[in-house]
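Methods: holo model generation. Sequences were used as deposited, without trimming of termini or removal of tags, and paired with ligand SMILES retrieved from the corresponding compound records. Each pair was processed once, and we did not select among multiple samples. The sequence and NAP SMILES for this entry were:
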Amino acid sequence: MPVDSPSPASQTICVTGAGGFIASWIVKLLLEKGYTVRGTVRNPDDPKNAHLRELEGAKERLILCRADLLDYEGLKDAINGCDGVFHTASPVTDDPEQMVEPAVDGTKNVIIAAAEAKCRRVVFTSSIGAVYMDPNRSPDVVVDESCWSDLEYCKNTKNWYCFGKAVAEQAAWDIAKEKEVDLVVVNPVLVLGPLLQPTVNASIVHILKYLTGSAKTYANSVQAYVDVRDVALAHILVYENPSASGRYLCAESALHRGELVEILAKFFPEFPIPTK
Ligand SMILES: NC(=O)c1ccc[n+]([C@@H]2O[C@H](COP(=O)([O-])OP(=O)(O)OC[C@H]3O[C@@H](n4cnc5c(N)ncnc54)[C@H](OP(=O)(O)O)[C@@H]3O)[C@@H](O)[C@H]2O)c1
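and the model returned the structure below.
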């Protein structure tokens, strides 16, 4: 950690949507590093968030706060007094009603609350979905942090998740500029890896459908993947490193679906993994 950064032991970080797949790993790593964590969840008493209380250091340094993304006062109470915010909560769905408003207004709420609390930095979990959906980009162009998804195209193809994430990230940049909040964005590709939470999240279904037999064939397409532990660590690194700025694509390897099912078949030969 750079010498001019305060030590983790003296800092409190708010993680929104703390019980989710990626956020649970962020909370775990933050606690292991010695940070005090305020995790927002919609219902602290829901058994699906109980795993957080079992994390090492949780008894001493984790506080769960009740907040919905559309509940500004709840978010404000959770963020007030925090040094940094990791805004990871978001709906993950292609239902436009459930996706767009909470993703966009929730992000605005979090950044405004962080501005009021004078947080050092906000790290926002955006997505590759805010980056790559652009039919006008030539196939020869390498996708990098300068790319943005085309909103009209997302709308016309009903990719409401990508639309919501792109609009939310754009809103994050706009509000952060207006409120002079130091914002850094992580844009992960499809995230896989061990689950800390007891429920199955959307990106895990990408693998699960090949193991349960619900997918009989695989698509002729390519997908980039990254491990959830690397994504969580990336969030912490961009928070801690003063020179971090802008967007960071977070990706490990790109595989054709045929390569993916081959790997799955090798590790799980007893499962009905498609061969075509
Ligand atoms: N997994 C991936 O492949 C991937 C890739 C790129 C980016 N991301 C981004 O990473 C973030 C976390 O995703 P994840 O994969 O960890 O999914 P997840 O496990 O479904 O986590 C999403 C979290 O957001 C919370 N949330 C949803 N709507 C909310 C609302 N209205 N108010 C408060 N909290 C709300 C959920 O709370 P409840 O448990 O109460 O529903 C849950 O804790 C999201 O921003 C997602 O867009 C994920």
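The pocket of NAP is lined by residues 17, 19-23, 42, 68-69, 88-92, 102, 125, 127, 165, 188, 190-191, 201, 203 (CB under 6 Å).
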